Every structure is written in structure tokens, then in C-alpha cells.
């Protein structure tokens, strides 16, 4: 008996429930990845990372006697076609929550039924499956803290070893991986399960310091595992299991990730529609201000530092994401959806649930229980980059300004050359400039 394992954003062999279960239950397994033209070109950074991760997955599968079969086209049509070629009776897939992924899964389910193929979906993209925890009287958790309490108490599934052997049917043509496409960020980390596992091992000794250091933008001591979690090069469960204390601040961040997955599962319009009923949405439209923000030329140094880090590395520190997103929505009054698009273009870890969920939280249209909280980027900068080192690293025009004065160049007797004055939104002087 033969099964196809359709890989999507679960590009690993360790703790992969769909792969492990199929290898145990079937004589032959065909690992498949379909390069979907509908997803191509969305983000050059992520496309490059994806291709690196596919190459690593192929190597790992070959090392186990198998291979990664690569096809181009519609994933549903290609899976059905391959199933006919190899006489498969089963198809396995990791369940996902975005609207696109769910439509794909539904189409696959319909086509499998038509062709008498048995489709099974598996967990693996989150620690706790979306929908597994429900508050009394609701279909999902709207507020993080009670979700976190339930999540930490929940029994987690067992972590799975990689299959020892992957046995392909004879005569399958694996297909070539296209040449590695260029990304846009010169300092983006490379994709792949081996890279991910190395990064995790190297970072774990710093984990006990996470509580004290994670907000220090210049110190840069967070795990930077997010791109690997985004593409499933690491299982979030196996990351969480490496830390003894489930209530620790680091494991709590993995719970935020699960939280937004279960929100997206219940509210698939998260990237376009305000989540909170009755949210006020009177955004301004100002293409010049949006472009200045996206390019890191707003004239507010900490905001520009964050946006330049994003463009240079395809990644941004979480505190800088909060500051840049708060500046776009709460200081400049621009629509969070525009911010989602810019982040999604550059971020290696950009995904629907976490990107839109966090943007809506900042904009006050999402899960924040205090949606009208004020926002002042200079206060934030003074607190989380007290010496200004993060700004000097990313904004070379300001590199000569010592200490925290770098956060307010407009107060200097001679403003620095080549750096713009702060963008002024219409209306009264914003509090952050007073
Ligand atoms: P660590 O601090 O080491 O945390 C470990 C892991 O926990 C991360 O890798 C990530 O998977 C998860 N995590 C941490 N913080 C959050 C959070 N607030 N929400 C959800 N998961 C979290 N994260 C993404 O993975 N993809 C996105 O598209 C994304 N967009 C964001 C947009 C905005 C406006 C904001 C404010 C945050 C966004 N985040 C997103 C969340 C967070 O900023 C990143 O996950 C984090 O900075 C990644 O760095 P790290 O791996 O070093 O995180």
C-alpha cells in the first residue's frame, strides 16, 4: 500500500505526525511538494527561504532512502495525478488555518473522495491544535490570558521521532528543484531543518535570560526561530519541550503563536476584516507617508531603525514591530492592512495568523483588551533602547549622535545631515513630538 504525504509549511522530518504515521502505516510513502503558482512571487525573501528548506528536506529524505517529489501547479490536481501514477490509496497532510489553506484542504478532500483516496489531516503546525481548547460558551478564546492558562494545563501530544526509512515506490520521478531564487534582504538567514536545529541548540543556553532580556532591542537576544517555525523546519512542540517550565516567558510566546492560530481558525477573515465587533476604523490614506514609513524615512529614529532592520534582514525584533506598527496606525493614523502588506512582503516569518493577528492587536481592532491604549514611540525608544545603540546600528545618518539624544534629533541645535524631520500627521501636534 502506498500513501502520499503532501508537504506545505511543515518542511521537516522530525516530529512530523503526517510523515511518521504514514511511514508506519503504509509500505511505501511518496513525500510531495507542489510549487503553487498562486503563492509564487508574494515575497522574494520567503520564496528563497522556502527553496532552501525544500533542498534540506530533500536531503533529509534521501538520507532515509526516500526523496522529495517536486511538482509545479495546483497542489490538489498534482496530488491526484501523482496518486494515480503511483497507485496510492492514502493522502496525508498537516492541517492549516489560513483561508487559502483551508480552501485547498477542502478541494483536496472533495477530489480525494471522488477518486476513492483516503485523506487524513494531522496536527503539527502548533503545540496545541487550533480548536482543541474552547472556553465555556464560545468556539475559541478571544483573550490571551485565559487561553494561556488552559494551554499550559493541557496534555500535549507525544513528540515523534523521524522515520528511519522512507520507502518510495519504484519508478517515481522526483523532479528537479528550480535554481535558488534571489531574495531581497542581504542579511536574511538561510532556510532548512538542519539550520533550524542548529539555531535552536545554539540559542537554548540563553533561554533562562529571556525573561529579562527579550525586550532589549540592541541586545538582540531572542531566539530568532520564527522563520523556521513559519515554514515548519522546526516543530513548535519540540521547541516547547526543550524548556522545562511550561509557564516560562519564552514558552508563553509559543502560546501567543498558538493563540493567533486558533483565532484565525475561528475568524478566517483576519487579514482583511476587523476582528473586534464595533471597532472604529477611520484611517487616513496618504501614500507618501506610507512610503516613508515602509522605507524607514519617517524621521522618528526608532521607527526607521526597525523598518531598516526589516528590509536588511527580513526580520525585525518584536519590540520594534510593536513600535513601527503603533507608529503607522496610532501616530500616523494609517490603515493596519497597509502595514500587514509591507510586513508580509519582507518578513521571512510572515504568515497570515501571526502577522494580521499582531497588527490588529496593535491597531486596536483585534484581541487587545485595551484597544484605545496610547502610543508614544519616543517613550518606547527610551525604555527599550535606552542608550540608542539599536538606532545607531540601523540608521547610519545618526551614528555620530551619542546616547539617548539619538531618539530625538529634532531637538539638537543642528539637525543631522541627510535625515528627514519627523512626518507630521494633520491635526494637533502629536503627543510623541511634544
Ligand atoms: P522569540 O521572542 O524568541 O519567541 C519565540 C517564538 O514565539 C517566535 O519565534 C514566534 O514563533 C513566537 N512568538 C513570539 N512573539 C509572538 C507574538 N507576539 N505573536 C505570535 N507569536 C509570537 N510573528 C511571526 O511569526 N510572523 C509574523 O508575521 C509576525 N508579524 C508580526 C507583526 C507585528 C505588528 C507584531 C507586533 C508582531 C509580529 N510577530 C510575527 C510576532 C513576533 O514579533 C515574532 O514572532 C518575533 O519577533 C520573532 O522573533 P523570535 O523568533 O526571536 O521570537
UniProtKB/TrEMBL annotation:
Keywords from UniProt, A to Z, are: Chromophore, FAD, Flavoprotein, Lyase
UniProt key word Transferase: no
The residues forming a coiled coil are: none
Annotated region (Disordered), positions in chain: 407-434
In terms of SUPFAM superfamilies, this protein maps to: Cryptochrome/photolyase FAD-binding domain, Cryptochrome/photolyase, N-terminal domain
- Is Flavoprotein set as a keyword in this record? yes
**What family does this belong to?**
Belongs to the DNA photolyase family.
Naturally occurring in which organism (per UniProt): Micromonospora nigra
Q: Where is this site: Electron transfer via tryptophanyl radical?
A: 283, 336, 359
Renumbered to this chain, the Pro residues biased-composition regions fall at 412-434
- Residues annotated as binding FAD are 210, 222-226, 250, 253-260, 349-351
Task: Tell me what this protein is called.
Answer: Deoxyribodipyrimidine photo-lyase
GO terms (molecular function) for this protein are: deoxyribodipyrimidine photo-lyase activity; DNA binding; FAD binding
A GO BP annotation: response to stress
Residues annotated as domain Photolyase/cryptochrome alpha/beta: 1-127
Q: Which Pfam families match?
A: DNA_photolyase, FAD_binding_7
Q: How is the cofactor bound?
A: Binds 1 FAD per subunit.
Q: Which cofactor does it need?
A: FAD
Q: Which InterPro entries match?
A: Crypto/Photolyase_FAD-like_sf (IPR036134), Crypto/Photolyase_N_sf (IPR036155), Cryptochr/Photolyase_FAD-bd (IPR005101), Cryptochrome/DNA_photolyase_1 (IPR002081), DNA_photolyase_1_CS_C (IPR018394), DNA_photolyase_N (IPR006050), Rossmann-like_a/b/a_fold (IPR014729)
Amino acid at each position: 500500500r502506498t500513501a502520499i504525504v503532501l508537504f506545505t509549511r511543515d518542511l521537516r522530518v522530525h516530529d512530523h505526525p503526517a510523515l511518521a504515521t504514514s511511514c508506519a502505516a503504509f509500505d511505501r510513502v511518496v513525500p510531495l511538494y507542489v510549487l503553487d503558482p498562486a503563492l509564487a512571487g508574494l515575497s522574494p525573501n520567503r520564496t528563497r527561504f522556502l527553496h532552501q528548506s525544500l533542498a534540506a528536506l530533500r536531503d533529509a529524505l534521501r538520507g532515509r532512502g526516500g526523496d522529495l517529489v517536486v511538482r509545479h501547479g495546483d497542489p490538489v490536481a498534482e496530488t491526484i495525478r501523482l496518486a494515480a501514477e503511483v497507485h496510492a490509496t492514502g493522502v496525508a497532510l498537516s492541517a492549516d488555518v489560513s483561508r487559502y489553506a483551508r480552501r485547498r484542504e477542502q478541494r483536496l478532500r472533495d477530489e480525494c473522495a471522488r477518486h476513492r483516496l483516503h485523506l487524513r489531516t494531522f496536527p503539527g503546525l502548533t503545540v496545541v491544535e487550533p480548536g482543541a481548547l474552547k472556553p465555556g460558551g464560545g468556539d475559541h478564546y478571544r483573550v490571551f490570558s485565559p487561553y494561556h492558562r488552559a494551554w499550559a494545563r493541557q496534555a500535549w501530544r507525544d513528540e515523534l521521532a523521524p522515520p528511519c526509512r522512507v520507502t518510495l515506490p519504484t519508478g517515481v520521478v522526483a523532479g528537479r528543484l528550480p535554481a535558488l531564487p534571489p531574495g531581497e534582504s542581504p542579511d536574511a538567514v538561510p532556510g532548512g531543518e538542519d539550520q533550524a536545529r542548529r539555531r535552536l541548540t545554539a540559542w537554548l543556553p540563553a533561554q533562562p535570560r529571556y525573561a529579562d532580556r527579550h525586550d532589549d532591542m540592541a541586545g538582540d537576544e531572542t531566539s530568532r526561530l520564527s522563520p523556521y517555525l513559519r515554514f515548519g523546519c522546526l516543530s513548535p512542540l519540540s521547541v516547547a519541550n526543550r524548556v522545562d517550565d511550561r509557564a516560562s516567558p519564552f514558552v508563553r510566546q509559543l502560546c501567543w503563536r498558538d493563540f493567533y492560530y486558533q483565532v484565525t481558525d475561528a475568524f478566517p477573515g483576519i487579514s482583511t476584516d476587523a476582528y473586534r465587533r464595533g471597532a472604529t476604523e477611520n484611517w487616513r490614506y496618504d501614500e507618501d507617508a506610507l512610503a516613508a514609513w515602509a522605507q524607514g524615512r519617517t524621521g522618528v529614529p526608532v521607527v526607521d531603525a526597525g523598518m531598516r532592520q526589516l528590509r536588511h534582514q527580513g526580520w525585525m525584533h518584536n519590540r520594534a514591530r510593536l513600535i513601527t506598527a503603533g507608529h503607522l496606525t496610532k501616530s500616523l493614523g494609517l490603515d493596519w492592512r497597509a502595514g500587514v502588506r509591507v510586513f508580509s512582503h519582507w518578513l521571512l516569518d510572515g504568515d497570515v495568523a501571526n502577522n494580521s493577528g499582531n497588527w490588529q492587536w496593535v491597531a486596536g481592532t483585534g484581541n487587545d483588551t485595551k484597544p484605545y491604549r496610547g502610543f508614544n514611540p519616543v517613550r518606547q525608544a527610551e525604555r527599550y533602547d535606552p542608550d540608542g545603540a539599536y538606532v545607531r546600528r540601523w540608521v547610519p545618518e545618526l551614528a555620530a549622535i551619542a546616547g539617548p539624544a539619538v531618539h530625538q534629533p529634532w531637538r539638537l541645535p543642528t539637525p543631522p545631515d541627510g535625515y528627514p524631520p519627523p512626518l507630521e500627521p494633520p491635526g494637533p501636534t502629536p503627543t510623541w513630538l511634544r
